[in-house]
Structure of Eukaryotic elongation factor 2 lysine methyltransferase:
Amino acid sequence: MLNMECLKRYRYLDDKYGNKCAILRNFQESFFAMNRMVSFPWTSVEKHLECNKSSDLVSEILKCTCFHSLCQKFPPSVQFRRMFLTELIRRLEAAGCDPLDELYDALAEVVGTEDTTQCYKSYLLPSGDAVSLLENVALISVGTTGLVTWEAALYLAEWALDHQEIFTNRTVLELGSGLGLTGITVCRYCRPSRYIFSDCHPGVLQRLRTNIKLNGLMEETPSLVSVEELDWMAVTEEQIKQIEADVIIAADVVYDPDIVPSLMKLLSNLLRCSAPQVIICSAVRKQETYGGFKQQLEKAGIQHHVITGAVRHVFPYHRASIIEMIQLHTKVVQ
């Protein structure tokens, strides 16, 4: 939780400096999510430093990022912190401001720290809470892309925050849960009666369980969540019936044409065994792959419609790909 400490600081700075509050919020959100360095509001910082010739703003940025208690508990990668602090120093020196000892001390500390293959990313929510996840630094590792959070999961979580009624008091099954960002957000804010995370890669399942515990779900509500190994090719109708899902969601599961047949088999079984609300969110990186998936839906007798409407931007991430959400349903026999 980002307690009242930063919220009070934000309000104080708002009164004193106007948009300084917005700058700090932007820095904090981008820092803990390890957003791209170019996305930080550096221009605003430069203008403030040039006008005031004071390092006060940089000191406040440090308090809400590297010196924040969340960073002590769930730190971003060493390389990212090194780049961030180096950029802060560059901007401070370019503006001709007095040196800030604490800034150089912070850089010296991370320079002397060994890089690791894992790091924490924390995604800040409107309430002030954070969903913190242990992620891999590399996009692909141990033969899977499931050890990092992808943009469709972030988008689906944002959509869920605006449509909480779809999940409230319902049993939700998530396919391809990955590291758990969407599911943890839904469990925290949408009050499902039960939430089933699922994946099939052993390393992803282990990390998923770790992240669920990191965010306190297992301890607080042991009956709310479960983690299931779900092999799309081997799952039986009996397993599906036992889950009895009211809502089924998935994010970034249509990225490889080789897995589409097994996904189609699973979706057909899910829709045949019950009448759940099925929502799939996809980052359309290759139109050919996504178009092929939609063609397979049609061949299987599964209709879909695109879910439209604006989605509130809650998390900082690069929105380069087209993201589309569809809802599935079987064809009505006349």
In short: The chain is about 45% helix and 15% strand.
